[in-house]
Amino acid sequence: MQLIITLYASYLFGNLVEQLWNFAWPAALAILHPSLLPVAVVGFFGKLSVFLGAPIVGKLMDHFPRIPMYTGLNAVQVATQLISAAMVIYALKNAGRTSTSALLLRPWFIVLVIAGAIERLAGLALGVSMERDWVVLLAGTNRPVALAQANAMLNRLDLLCETVGASVFGLLLTKYDIVTCLKISSALMICSFPILVMLGQLINSVSCHALDSSRTPSDESICADLLDVRKIVQNGLSSIKHGWNEYKQQTVLPASVATVFLNFNVALAPGAIMTALLMHRGISPSIVGAFSGLCSVMGLVATFISSSLVKRVGILKAGAAGLIFQASLLSIALTVYWAGPISQRTPLLIFLASIALSRLGHMSYDVVGTQIIQTGVPASKANLIGGMEVSIASLAELVMLAMAIIANDVSHFGFLAILSVSSVAGAAWMFCRWLGNPTDEQRELFIFDPHFQLQAT
């Protein structure tokens, strides 16, 4: 019990600082410049680093000892967060009004983009190590109930961090200027590093040094090959090609593709684009923070609703219900946005409430979809296919962020919103079509699902 609680504490503390920064930088850039383009560019290169770098980082994590890798990744993430904060503070103090194209070529912005890309990749690697490796090792694969409970708790802690991080920074913005808020965030980042390192060492000590080794036997030649800058592109492309071949052959491919489609929704979801839009519309920072927090609360509620929904209608119908619910609520939000200015109180509340409620469907499918994929993917290929899904999902977000870069004016947000709703509706249609036309292999995998039991009778 002490071991798993220490793991939760490490995950909670590291995630809280990360989520605080994820809300802070787009809010600061929105104050700095009236266009969505700077936020979209930073986000684009962050997703690009994940898409290209995740396969190689995953291999490195398999061959390096866990604790040194954990410490190194935390150091990289904190350092890049501090560099990014320093660049934004410098810009806020020294940069005057300038054109968008001129801003993108400023040295401080280029450094911000590079640091942001590295920070995203380090953050993803830390998340994967905790959620796919450490929790499995410490909870035990031979204890499925304990492992399921640990996974659910990590999911809830992640949503809690989103709520608290956004709310805290929004509250700080109402009391202090943006530069002071960024300095407070930087102080929290600096304080977090030694605490995270100590928690990692404590976890290892309590687990009788179970984390000292790597997942696979360490091979210096493999590590040297992966770190060879001359081969980094070749290694990355090779990993992506192999993963894609395995990914497209899985039985539950439509369920996984539906998950990828949901990642096209970058406009009507809590995130950098939505934060920048609301700040540009003159919405109070406290309302923006409360909206992000409410979205996280809805996601947290969904983790409890999904389990009861699965018991009532089965895992497959529960997945369809989540997708249809999300598509319906986002359609309402899109209608309200096009009907009139959302700066007025009533349209704004309906717009934000529809998006927040849609997170119930989104997170319900996130939980259910994961279980569907776990059921249909062999254990020997779970990490490979799961990693490929993350990479493809990052590619989906890259496409949408590229659209945001092209349509960077706030007046073009409606175009991004249409694409977002279309992607979610497409995911719902694809999943329902797959559910309505099951194959024999699908029936065999989900033989105990009420949907197929009802058809059999």
From TrEMBL:
Membrane topology term = Multi-pass membrane protein
Q: Name one GO molecular function term.
A: iron ion transmembrane transporter activity
Chief localisation class: membrane
Q: Does the record bear Transport in its keywords? A: yes
Q: Matching Gene3D superfamilies, A to Z?
A: MFS general substrate transporter like domains
Recorded GO cellular component terms are: membrane
Xref: InterPro entries = Ferroportin-1, MFS_trans_sf
Entry keyword set: Ion transport, Membrane, Transmembrane, Transmembrane helix, Transport
- Presence of the UniProt keyword Manganese in the record: no
CDD domains reported in the protein's UniProt record: MFS_SLC40A1_like
Membrane spanning residue stretches = 35-57, 69-92, 104-122, 251-277, 283-306, 318-340, 346-363, 384-407, 413-436
Name the source's superkingdom. Answer: Eukaryota
Localization, UniProt: Membrane
Q: Note the PANTHER family from the entry.
A: SOLUTE CARRIER FAMILY 40 MEMBER, SOLUTE CARRIER FAMILY 40 MEMBER 3, CHLOROPLASTIC
Q: Which family does it belong to?
A: Belongs to the ferroportin (FP) (TC 2.A.100) family. SLC40A subfamily.
Described function: May be involved in iron transport and iron homeostasis.
Q: What is this protein called?
A: Solute carrier family 40 member
- Species per Swiss-Prot/TrEMBL record: Aegilops tauschii subsp. strangulata
Q: Provide the organism lineage as a comma list.
A: Eukaryota, Viridiplantae, Streptophyta, Embryophyta, Tracheophyta
